[in-house]
Structure formats: structure tokens, C-alpha cells
Amino acid sequence: MNTEIKQTDVELIQGDITKAEVDAIVNAANSELIGGGGVDGAIRRAGGAAIENACAEIRRREGGCPTGKAVITPGGDLYAKYVIHTAGPVWEGGNSGEAELLASCYQESLRLTIGNDIQSIAFPSISTGVYGYPTEKAAVVALTAVKEFVLQSNAVPTTIQFILFDEATHTCYVDALHTLNF
Ligand code: ADP
Q1: What pLDDT sits at residue 4?
Q2: Nearest residue to 134 via CA among 102, 86, 167
Q3: Is 90:131 a contact under the CB 8 Å cutoff?
Q4: Which of 32, 39, 121, 127 to mutate to test the pocket of ligand 1 (most atoms within 8 A of CB)?
């Protein structure tokens, strides 16, 4: 479904983010920037060595990517020119700052679009796989964070997609979008 916020389209799509025809896709990475399973493994497999080489360089230079922050690498063999890697929080019951950290993942990722000529970006559902963040809660945090960024920033991508792998996750995001009255 498409919803207008200012001039930015927010689209909720069920599918595989490695196939997204956007300028940048976001990876639900770990803070070590070491290849994992889930969406991270899928992106690294599809993008090839250019992604791992760039992650290795960031590991050497900065030690990795702290939870709630984001770093950018080339997209390698992907359609997307860039991969923005963000480390989501592990769910520990909700009282350990998980919501703030998750919101920060979306906002820091969007911040990296500025200055990198990124007009379109696709997000997966960060933290709701192995990291165990309840999807209904994560969807509200994700969409609220994106909405706040779009309302506060002058330079925003014209297209922001959420590419949700399975039907249950897609449904949670659609419900959250309605609840938030976008
Ligand atoms: P995290 O460690 O942040 O929880 P995961 O990769 O385990 O990250 O899961 C995050 C979400 O990404 C889950 O909803 C999972 O189903 C989804 N996912 C896995 N593969 C893909 C893919 N190819 N495209 C989009 N989403 C995916």
C-alpha cells in the first residue's frame, strides 16, 4: 500500500529485500558487522565480496557498528548501489531501551541517505527475527521513527519501502500504519 507523507511515499511490500530496485537497502546487521543468518546472510550472498570487504574495512577502522547506529557500504552485485548496515537491539523484555535503539536504527539509516544521493531506500523488519523483538511492537516503532524523520528533515528520500519477508510481518506493518493514521 502507498501512503503519502509530504512528498515521500512509504510502501509496505511483502518480498525479498535483496531484489529491491532502490538506491539503498538496509541490512539488519550485528554490531560486529560479521556475516550472520537471516536477512544479513541473504544480502551478503546476493551482494558478494564487495560488501564483506567494505565491512572488514569498517571493522578495522571503527571496530564495527554500535547498536542503534548505521554504516554504509557499496551494494556489490545487488541492484542497490549501497547497503546501509544497522545493528538492531536484542529484545530483552522491553525495559532495556530497546524501543529507543530500534528507532535510532531507522533514523540513523535515513540520515546516511543525505549526502549519498539516495532517493529510494528499502528496510527489512529490523530485530524481529533472531533478535526476538515482538513484530507488532517493532512495526509501530519503525513507522513512527520514519514518520518523525520525514517530518523533521528537509532532505528525505522520495521512496521509503519496508520489504517484509513473510505475510505475518507484512500484516503487522499494515496494521501499525493504520493505527498510526499515516
Ligand atoms: P535480526 O537479527 O535483526 O532479528 P533477522 O535477519 O533474523 O534480523 O530478521 C529480521 C527480519 O528479516 C525477519 O522478519 C526476517 O523474516 C526477515 N528476512 C529474512 N530474510 C529476508 C529477506 N531476504 N528479505 C527481507 N526480509 C528478510
Answers
A1: 47
A2: 102
A3: yes
A4: 39
pTM to 2 decimal places: 0.96
Mean pLDDT calculated for residue range 94-104? 98
Mean pLDDT along residues 77-88:
98
Residue indicated by cell numbers 509496505: 12
Q: Which among 25, 103, 38 has a CA at the least distance from the CA of 68?
A: 103
Question: 40 Cβ partners below 8 Å, 6+ apart?
Answer: 27, 28, 29, 30
Shortest-distance Cα residue to atom 7 of ligand 1: 129
pLDDT digits (tens, 9 = 90+) for 32-75: 999 989 999 999 999 999 999 999 999 999 999 999 999 999 99
Q: What is the distance in A from the centroid of ligand 1 to the CA of 67?
A: 17
Q: Is 124 in the pocket of ligand 1 (CB under 6 A)?
A: yes
Catalytic residue status for 117: no
**Topology of the domain covering 9-180:** Leucine Aminopeptidase, subunit E; domain 1 (3.40.220)
